[in-house]
Every structure is written in structure tokens, then in C-alpha cells.
Amino acid sequence: MGIFSLFGKKESQPAAKPAGDASARKKRDATVRSGEPADEGAREQLAQDQRQVARATALKIDAIESEMSSEFVRPAARSTPAGVPAAPVSPAPEAQPPVAPPTIGGTTSATAFLVDDAPYAAPPADSPVESVPVFEEAAILFANGQTQMVEHVLVDAIESDALGTASINAWAMLFDLYQITGDQVQFETLSIAYASRFETSPPAWMPFVLAETASVIARAPAVASVAFSGKLDAGIVKTLEKTRALSEKNTSLRLEFIRITEVDPIGCGLLLRVLRQLQKSGIDLILVGAQELIDKIRAILEVGRRDETEAPWLLLLELLALLNRETAFEEASIDYCVTFEVSPPSFVTPRNKVTTAMEEPTPVAVAAEDVYVMPAIVEGRTETLVAGPTAFASRHNPARVDCAGLARVDVNAAGQLLAGLAPVSGDGRSIEFFNVNHLVAALFNVLGLKQVIRIVTRRI
User: H-helix or E-strand containing 355?
Assistant: First the structure.
């Protein structure tokens, strides 16, 4: 089912009495009259021109919808001969123009990320990173803080398509790198390439939470996130595809509009229909930067001018309704009905939960006897710090060490961890490091730490 198959056509809205006093209405009428041609024939010609623009915009939105719907039905991945870059798979039988491959890490991919006869599955959370030279190189570079070199190494590894079944680990490490460094733009770009390659939903953006203390850690449910950026126009198709895919597998969704720089009618129409579908599905929404988007829409609108067609006006009203701002909605609806000479739409309270920011997680005390929480960075001469998990492991069996807030471990510190925990493990005790990011897990694998402890990587 295509992304817009549930939208249907726009229904006529019941008539309602316009809000505001007579003077406000007269002012709007005067504004409209002042911008109209004095001649009746000229006014009719202007109205016809505006209707043609509106029809052309609507047809273009419908065409984009149709194309997007067909793209959601993906054929099975086909094997690619060795040494030959895979071509993007077209959903339609007729010839298609070449599609630019996704770009990750600032480099354009030369492949469609398809290998063998089926897409790979994400690595199990309890499986350590495989011993592959490129992973070892990336792990050492990351341990030394050379994040740009790590990105180049992993991007090259993915695009070379020579890792076989181990390639999924390169993707996982690159996702972790972008989250740890806070690079959401590259994370979202990688997500699009991931969805195309593996034909499954990409991981959601979750800013890396650094544990500030060893006794308190913030816990909050993971929320799938989609970030819109640049111009809101026909180019948002891929972002809308991701939105639809995530909405099918999550009960809540975070939409970020902060990076939108400008809007046009086509982009407004596409986003409007997605928001209406999300409303019907009952999914909870977190709208970040909604007010900024409202301001950008208002900037291109003028009462009485129909050049922008109805789409921006309707998106403006939809956002105001989602934010439950009834007064602002009524004022904008009057402007809308004056401009297009139609009955104003009725305000409807959102059926689902809509907020404008993530709720801050509640810090939950972690009992010392249950789990040991690692700090964000482990580096330098860390005898005292390494003594913490070592002493904890000597007193607990099994010993569980939470690494959710652990961003990086340098090589020296990792060696000290191995030296401290090996004797404890030799006494028959069970030690588990869980929620380990894939870059740190690769370092532990290089140094042989997996021989003395169980390493459970966090899910991508």
C-alpha cells in the first residue's frame, strides 16, 4: 500500500460562522479589493490564471504521490557479479533514468549496496564484532580520538562491498560514530542508504547519552526520529518514505523541522497529507521546530493572494490544530476562507498525543548491588577507574556492567581492563558488559577482552 493510499480526496468542510468582529472582516475585504483589478474581465482572467496554477500544483503533487507509492513495492534483491557495481532496482518495467546513489560521509557511493541474493539482517545484540582488519583499524583510530579517519575507513569499507556478511558491522559502527559525535545530518543520510540496502527500517536517531555519575543513569524509551532539512519541496520524497516506514513500526514518532530553510506549495502539500495519515493512524507525535515551520509558511502567504494555492494554507491550519492552538487556528481560517472564498474549516482537537519537545527522562537510581555503570570516557592512566569494575566483578556473580553511557575507551585503558578482569574471570565468575557501542566492542575484540567477558552490543 502506497504512502498516500489512505489519504483519499479532500472532503468538503462544514460551514461555520467566521470568528472575529465586523471590523476585522471589513479590513480583510478591503485588503482583497485593493489588490484586485478594477475591470471585471481582468478579475475573471486573474481568477482563471490562479485556478490553473492551483490545478498544476495539485497534479504535480498527485504525480509525486503515485511515484512514491510504486517505490514502496520493492522487488527482491538481485545478486551482483563480482567487480560490477550494482544498479538501482527500478520498481516499474519501463526504462528509468539513472538515479544518483546515496551519499554517506561526504562521499558518493558507487554501488546500490546490494550483495548476494538477499538483504542482510541486523547483527544480534549479543554477538561481538567480527575480527576483520578494517574493523580493527577503525577501532584503534577511534580509541585514539581520530574520528574523521574512522569515518573514511568505514565509508570506504561499505562502498567497496568486499566484507561479505560482516558488512553489517561496518554500518553499525558508522551509525554509532555519528551518534557519539552528534552528526545527525550524516546519520540521516546513512539511514536512507541503509533502508535502501537492507530493505528495512533504519535505526532511529538517539543522541548519545553520557552517564554523568556511576550511580544515576537517565532512562527513557527510544523514539524514532525523522529530520527534515533544506527546502520543503518535492525533494522531501525520501524523508517522507522514511516517515511512513517508521510510523508502521512505532507508536510514537519525532518529526524535526528546525533545519527547514524555506517552503514551497508542493512540499507543503506532500507534508500535509503525511501528517493527516499520521493523525488517522493514532501515532503519538513530537513536533520539534513546529513554530519555526509555521513562521516560514506565514512568510509566503498573503490574504487575498492565491499564487501559493491552498496547500500552504492547509498545512498552516493542520499544524495549528496539531498544536491545539484554537485561537490562532480560527484567525488563520478566516484569512483562508477570505482568500479562497470558501467556508472556513472547523477546528478539531488532535486525537493522538502531540508535543513539541521530548520529555526529559527521569533519572533512576541504579543500585550498586545490581549493576556497575561505566563513565563516558575511559582513558590515560586509569588504575583507580579500572579498579571499580574489577572490584565489582570480584564481589558479584554474574557481574553486569552497563556501558550505555560509555562513548570511548583508549587502548591503554582497555588493556588495563583486560589485566584486571582476567583473574576474576579465571575464578569461574561471569562478567557481562552490555549496551556496548560497536566501536568500543571492536576495540575489546582486538585486545582479546571477549575471551574473559561477555560483550553485548547495543542494537542499531
Answer: strand 354-355
